[in-house]
Amino acid sequence: MNDEARIREIYRRISEAAQHWPTTTLDHYQGQPFKALIAGMLSAQTREEQTLQAAETLFALADNPYDMLQLTDEQILRAVQPVSFSQNKAKYVREICQRLVEVDGGVVPRDLEKLMQYRGVGWKVAVLTRQVGFDIHDDITVDVHVNRISKRLGLVNPATKQPAKINDELKQVLPREFWARWNPLLVLFGREVCKPTYPQCATCFLRDLCPRIGVVQIGPRRFKNAEYL
To answer: 134, 161, 177: which is the final residue of a domain?
Structure first.
């Protein structure tokens, strides 16, 4: 099996399995740029469950930047309390809304560089906002799951660190039609199977296709390298 055929089979198998797994947080905000932007910012270094809880609580109070600015700092902080770094993110919520209203007329920009001018919005959140909010898939969102799993699969150089550079490497090997779903699929796959410290390699449906690069743990025991898997 050549590299292209292997990648297509990997994508097919994950897509098939994902039909039976819970959706990701950002799936709730497809086609809603403002909610995608705020939820994406809240999701940084936070579990799916906490992100969704915080986002839904916040959007129940206000679902647009104008109404959001009418909330008190205490209301915003209380709503986003479940996420990590909640105090900083509560401040970012207000600052994002202020910039939206004062600079961009209440309309979330589609441009990557403009999105990155918002406080708390780095490259990853900007790409994610474009994908979820605007259905723009010029790049691949690179989070911890995409970083980890793409390297284990041998699609990205293990030494590459920056998300934007990982994105560039992935775009060289993944067919364009896979870019849109690569992140959400690997988020699900990473939660259910290819976990950070104890990936389920022994029972994984990609076992015959995965070189398991850098995998050093499986099940309850610790191994020195992947040759024991």
So the answer is: 134
